[in-house]
Amino acid sequence: xxxxxxxxxxxxxxxxxxxxxxxxxxxxxxxxxxxxxxxxxxxxxxxxxxxxxxxxxxxxxxxxxxxxxxxxxxxxxxxxxxxxxxxxxxxxxxxxxxxxxxxxxxxxxxxxxxxxxxxxxxxxxxxxxxxxxxxxxxxxxxxxxxxxxxxxxxxxxxxxxxxxxxxxxxxxxxxxxxxxxxxxxxxxxxxxxxxxxxxxxxxxxxxxxxxxxxxxxxxxxxxxxxxxxxxxxxxxxxxxxxxxxxxxxxxxxxxxxxxxxxxxxxxxxxxxxxxxxxxxxxxxxxxxxxxxxxxxxxxxxxxxxxxxxxxxxxxx
Length: 316
Fold this sequence. Notes:
The chain is an alpha+beta fold. Helix content is about 35%, strand content about 20%. The chain has three domains: about 5-105, Arc Repressor Mutant, subunit A (Orthogonal Bundle); about 115-170 and about 285-315, D-Maltodextrin-Binding Protein, domain 2 (3-Layer(aba) Sandwich); about 185-280, D-Maltodextrin-Binding Protein, domain 2. The protein contains ten helices and 17 strands. A five-stranded mixed sheet has the order 6-5-7-17-8, with helices on one face. Strands 14-9-15 form a three-stranded antiparallel sheet. β3 (about 70) and β4 (about 75-80) form a beta hairpin. α1 (about 25-35) crosses α3 (about 50-65), α1 packs across α4 and α2 (about 40-45) crosses α3 (about 50-65).
């Protein structure tokens, strides 16, 4: 065709401006439906078409991108690594197409699935209640959470937003600061009755400190004391985990001294502040998203929601 440009990396036919031809959209919808349903028949039921139609459109897409997107066995279907990469991009494309259709029709409401990757501690900030209210207001909006403390690749997972405390290298993503958190030290009364209460940061080396385990062992904590002076102190070992949920449960079980935020302490009469004149080093939380996502109403709603949760935690 005159004026077409073929892109090997995605295999999608584009115009000079990069707009995907409308007759390719159905193939993308079929591919996403197969990935979501796990089979051709499930995709056919979801799309209300025949299995043969699904099979033909999927084959045409694979031929166009010069890649196998799905491996097929007698029992199940699984995305290839190329399929995983294309799936995240397809979801964004279909979301934008649907958003454009709704805008043209004068409909102003969030659509599709809001997929968020968040650190565990955010679940203690009233996030789930906020999401419940969001779905009450917009019942057609689906919500999916990826919860964990390991770094998440936004592009690879197809997330709308990733919340992180780490400033990424220049990646072409938009980054918005949600707020700043000021964690403190705390322990269960039972632990303090058993092991004693430290009166200076130096005494932490003689206690069981609930340390976050990552690529490097956490042997020291950065504390901020009177006059905002920072001190790096050695902490005692014996217990560590790579999941803050586990560390919080260990704190509640009286295993040792842990790092918590004020919302996590709220209403926990069994927990006592430790070294109240000191705080754990403050850190910022950021929302990362692709610039194209900013046009979607669900992205804007999610940013406002997350900011409310973090600001509420800041002020508590």
